[in-house]
């Protein structure tokens, strides 16, 4: 079998908290969640299947179409959001590589990238430990995101015509679709895609890059990581639709309130 090619017999994804054998239906089309990492776009891949795992074990295998660092990086990021990579747990590149059906090299390279981002830390001669984060760090990220994005969205509300906001409806709908099936990893992708699309209208690439990095970090799991309820995901997704309505109506007070509430409540 060619290195990195899809494995046969990989189980389909399952809903968080559901027993094994309960397939998820209506998985959100990932093409709607545009603007993913440049590495993933070059790889042209999609996330593969997700299965069960127990504490102390690496996540169950995902389908990887190409033995490229970008594809592995995207899969590991999804595993982080899903809680498959447990805060405080150490994972070795060879064991993860075996799970993905690739060599240890692209896994190690992807983990090094996650280390530079602060998602994991290098443990010499052992592997990589998933960073342990508490509520304070999440609150600090929410505060910084609000300081950056609230003024920008208020300015955009005053200047962007209604038809431009209407073009973002499919991205908001994609977050609702991901939330409806309780798919935290797809929701995280679509959530970032929606915010990137809004901020892109400001015409400042540096702003978009910084805001997206803060957003990604806010999605990493906490030390105490209870599974996000589907109802919470749906409520979070509904705020995207409400925000578009307020931006279209140029209701600045509602825009400001919604963005601040969205950040303080975002924990997926």
TrEMBL record:
- What does the organism's lineage look like at the top? Bacteria, Bacillati, Actinomycetota, Actinomycetes, Kitasatosporales
Q: Where exactly are the transmembrane stretches of this chain?
A: none
Write down the InterPro entries for this protein, in alphabetical order: GntR_C, TF_FadR/GntR_C, Tscrpt_reg_HTH_GntR, WH-like_DNA-bd_sf, WH_DNA-bd_sf
Alphabetized SUPFAM superfamilies for the sequence = GntR ligand-binding domain-like, Winged helix' DNA-binding domain
The biased composition feature labelled Basic and acidic residues covers 38-56
Which segments show compositional bias classed as Low complexity? 17-27
- Where is the region Disordered? 1-62
Q: Which UniProt keywords apply?
A: DNA-binding, Transcription, Transcription regulation
What SMART domains would the database entry show?
Answer: FCD (SM00895), HTH_GNTR (SM00345)
Q: What is this protein called?
A: GntR family transcriptional regulator
- Source organism, top-level taxon: Bacteria
| Domain HTH gntR-type, first and last residues per copy | 66-133
> Per the record, a Pfam family?
FCD
């Amino acid at each position: 079998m060619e290195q990195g090619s899809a494995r046969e017999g990989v189980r389909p994804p399952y809903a968080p908290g559901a027993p094994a054998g309960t397939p998820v239906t209506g998985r959100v089309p990932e093409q709607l969640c545009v603007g993913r990492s440049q590495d993933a776009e070059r790889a042209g891949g999609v996330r593969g299947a997700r299965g069960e795992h127990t504490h102390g074990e690496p996540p169950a295998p995902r389908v990887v179409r190409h033995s490229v660092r970008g594809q592995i990086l995207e899969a590991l990021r999804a595993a982080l959001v899903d809680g498959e990579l447990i805060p405080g747990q150490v994972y070795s590149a060879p064991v993860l590589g075996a799970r993905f059906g690739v060599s240890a090299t692209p896994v190690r390279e992807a983990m090094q990238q996650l280390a530079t981002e602060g998602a994991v830390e290098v443990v010499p001669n052992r592997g990589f430990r998933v960073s342990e984060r508490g509520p304070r760090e999440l609150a600090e990220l929410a505060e910084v995101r609000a300081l950056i994005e609230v003024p920008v969205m208020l300015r955009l509300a005053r200047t962007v015509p209604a038809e431009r906001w209407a073009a973002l409806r499919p991205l908001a709908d994609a977050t609702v679709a991901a939330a409806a099936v309780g798919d935290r990893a797809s929701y995280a992708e679509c959530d970032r895609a929606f915010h990137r699309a809004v901020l892109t209208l400001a015409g400042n690439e540096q702003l978009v890059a910084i805001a997206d990095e803060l957003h990604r970090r806010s999605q990493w799991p906490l030390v105490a990581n209870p599974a996000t309820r589907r109802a919470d995901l749906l409520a979070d997704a509904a705020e995207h639709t409400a925000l578009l309505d307020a931006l279209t109506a140029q209701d600045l007070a509602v825009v400001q309130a919604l963005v601040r509430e969205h950040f303080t409540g975002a924990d997926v």
